[in-house]
Amino acid sequence: MPEPRRHIRLHGCTNFRDLGGYTGHQGRALRWGQVYRSDHLADLTEGDLHQLDALGVARAVDFRGAQERAHHGYAWPQLQQHSLAIEPTVVQEALQLLKAGGSLSVPDTVALMQDTYRALVLEAAPVYARWFALLLEDERPLVFHCTAGKDRTGWAAALLLHALGVAPEAIAQDYLLTNQLYHRPAMLAAQAARHIPQEVLQVLWTVQPAFLDSAYAAVAQSWGSMERYLHEAIGLTPDALAELHGRYLELPSGR
């Protein structure tokens, strides 16, 4: 059998990757071929869809907002699509500020991104609770995504990896892989560059440890720990957590 691959090369998206292989609870590895994260799937080619079929991917969890889905929607017959909308705010806030004659520095943009991550923790928790319910209700492999697969998707991945017992260093490593893999469409980049300075775009279209750290800080301030956040805000009971481990982690060695 060929070795599993982290990054799945597709023509219609660039940030499609398998979450398998990371070491989780009790040293058990995450199962390959069960959960994938990605940027949006609207531009997949016929060959890409055949590749997803071969991987057994049958479900797609879409964290994009209504306007994003309207502009870049998809309805691939082999993918059961679940819309769990988290409306984007940071780019809109940046554009409004610039159109009103304001200026936006790199530190301002980092602060906006940190606000976005705090909102993911505090306001989007019910959405992520539904995401975990989908992980537990069906054993078919799935992919979850937003537009670039970096922020809403990045926090979803961090939550799942933490729930499965993955070390913070490995979670951060997975999070930062977006900077190596995601390539924004040339047309989108050109349109954005007409309104937003390039150094600001660089912040908006990449991920930084400071973004994820702001989410963790919001968790610590309001819940004290990720364990309490997952239990109280996301609804992961001990039984649900045990089921999640049983479904997505390899069996302990010797069994």
From TrEMBL:
<protein>
    <submittedName>
        <fullName>Tyrosine-protein phosphatase</fullName>
        <ecNumber>3.1.3.48</ecNumber>
    </submittedName>
</protein>
<comment type="similarity">
    <text>Belongs to the protein-tyrosine phosphatase family.</text>
</comment>
<dbReference type="Pfam" id="PF13350">
    <property type="entry name" value="Y_phosphatase3"/>
</dbReference>
<keyword id="KW-0378">Hydrolase</keyword>
<dbReference type="GO" id="GO:0004725">
    <property type="term" value="F:protein tyrosine phosphatase activity"/>
</dbReference>
<dbReference type="InterPro" id="IPR029021">
    <property type="entry name" value="Prot-tyrosine_phosphatase-like"/>
</dbReference>
<dbReference type="InterPro" id="IPR026893">
    <property type="entry name" value="Tyr/Ser_Pase_IphP-type"/>
</dbReference>
<dbReference type="InterPro" id="IPR016130">
    <property type="entry name" value="Tyr_Pase_AS"/>
</dbReference>
